[in-house]
Design a protein that fits this description.
The structure holds 2 protein chains of 2 kinds. By secondary structure, chain A is mostly beta strands. Helices cover about 5% and strands about 40% of the residues of chain A. Chain B contains 25 helices and 4 strands. Classes of the chains: A mainly beta, B mainly alpha. Chains A and B meet through strand 5, helix 1 and helix 2 of A and helix 4 and helix 19 of B.
Amino acid sequence: MVTQLAAGRVFDFSRVVGRTAVSGMGFTQPVAVAITGGDLVYVLNRGWEQISNVPWNRTQNGIRVGMVTIGDEPGDEEFVGDFAKRGDDPGELIWPTGMALDSHGNVYITDEWLNRVSIFDSRGKFQRMWGAEGAGEGQFSGPSGIAIDQHDELYIVDSRNHRVQRFSKNGVFLDQWGGLGAAAGKLDSPWGITIDQQGDVYVADHKNHRVQKFAPNGRPLAEFGSYGTGRGQLNRPSDVAVDSDGDVYVCDWANHRVQIFGPDGRFVASFRGDAQELSKWAKMSLEANPDAIRRRREVPSLEAEWRFSFPTGVTFDLVKNRLIVTDCQRGRLQIYNKLKDYVQPARTI
Amino acid sequence: MTSDKIALMAHLMRRGGFGAGREELEARAAKGYEATVEDLVNPREEPVDRYEFLRYHPGYIRHITSPGMGSANWLHTLINTQRPLEEKMVLFWHHVFATGASKVDHWHELVAQVDMFRERGMGNYRDMLVALAKNPAMIYWLDNCDNHGYAVNENWGRELLELFSMGVGNYTEEDVQECSRAFTGWTIAPVPPRIYYGRFDWHFDYKEEDHDDGEKTFLGHTGRFNGEDIINIVCQQPATAQFVARHLYNFFVADEPQVPAWSATPPQDPEAIDTLAKTFMDSGYEIAPVLRVLFNSDFFKNARFAKIKSPAEVVVGTLRFAGGAEFPAPGIGNLAKNTGYMGQELLNPPSVEGWHTGVEWINSGALMKRINFAAEMLGDVDRPGIQDIIGRLQVQGELPPEEFVDSCLDLIGPLEVKPETRLQLVEHATEKGALRWGTEREVGVSTERVGEILKLIASVREYQYS
């Protein structure tokens, strides 16, 4: 099914954008996506280790931020450009993990190896960076998810310190919460983060197999999910997004799906990936390879091609009312619309 | 704690694992030898959290074609496992059932194969052979996907008998043909091409319409055999028990000739092989009871430093001892290539015959790589394992050169070296006199000297032996 009616909502699979590629029209292990007010999205590519016999900071390939306009229909996508590259010099990245935009369109990227935040302008020109390794206030051990509120204050998941830290946009430490543990308010290797329209904060509590909701001051408000593979259960969630209705979308990373919860925490629906049509760029790759065309025609079921494989990042586009998922292992985005005006056909049709 | 108990425990942990630091050796020796064997054979520690590695290195989930680097996530497990014999058995079966990336070209399928070895490596051999026959990497490696009822391919059938069970001389060409017929239709399902969304996982597929269901005669048995029937007959053969036992002896006890020579060269200790083979048969082809008998035997206990370490043992043993590589830092793919530089590229053996072992591990190039790698790690005084040695030396107070050298040899193993080797190390240590820790400056100088002497120990002949 590509249209899913669940608990009064209608989710409709829209399309897939991307293919695996280490530059240009495609992505390399995409882990996060950020959307501007317009159609432009930034896709953060983790890259992979590929180059032998070089120092540790030169071995990866494909690290970059891709800029793509995604339009509204299949085939609308256009590659705009990319910026940043591997390395540990200013403006370079080793383990890029989280990405968010401030009110001026500047792009903030966390690096969970270099323990810093790098800031680029909306066209990808490097601006500045800050951050240092450690466990003290304002220091990092594995900064991963990042979210920016309406006042341009930054909430950064400090994963290996098992906490969330809040900063001014210039990197001045404001406060923190969390600490290692499984009780309410504690965290274990948290990863992704988002902020809803009320300013409440949601954290993918990775090794506790849940999402926790916090007030802006860090007071725990609610939690979603428990360990498992069933409905509403999670296995190492990696990211979370919230729509304008308060529905919560969780990247259920090791279960290869997205789990959706209502504002009250009740399970609503699950996406497993619905990429039944190839993306525009994937078709280009396929059509250039006659052997690949023949092989694909031999495959008894193409279902493996549709499904998520370690989906890692989710973002909800409040303007277009759609969810964008970075399907990490498949080098692509899968996009689902949340329909408000769906007319259900008669059952007798 | 007597030094002999520690030395024997160190021997067990080198062979049944990848070595151990002094604190672990003391704890295990206090618990007792037989109890430690039992802990190794029935590990209760938590397995390595594989997701930890994949979370930081998603590119290794289905790694692209890149020689040597695709074994990085296995290296992470080798470094971090608290179930050392289980992982040693993974290495053992990878050597016996050698399958390589040079042809398979899908690292994640090879990783899936070693995951199967981890799951079954100390379990039932018959069940593992069935799993192996259904393993997609093996099916592709030995062309069973091209083994059809209408056109037989004998590659898998031949190697099953020659290299995976009985060994040359225990079957005929007709047996190979009939065995191969029984595995027709055992294949892998086609998957989408990798060029646009990356690699997809392979799966075993039995195509009944492609299977030759006719009557077959195999090793004197006649019937309409399918693959599992063949494996059942193979396991009943005394030659299979001898073959598995000799492999285990070669891997854990002492270097035997290379496998192709086994049909012509008898084992160096036939009685030991018979003991292991009998246990194998009596237990219904279970591996754990054989390992229990092996590690508790005198022939094992008396075989200290009788084997040349494999490159994997050098690299993993050194990294585990020195410490500091537990977190999968950037560059782990290049770290994983080190075994290859020494002649053992994990997940990429040179052929289905596996690696030639023993003295064939050593040549001038590989030896230099071994020494340089070990010296770099053991000479790095910031690594936690080396810090531990420095701390233990420091509490002994001022150490004359001889005691300094003896203590280092003891703490790094204990490593048993020839008198002339020890003399050379002592001569070097004597140049700068006793090791002193009285002032900050002396601590700095002594720390540097410990790193230096450990580098030298890493370069002695004896360090290459297990």
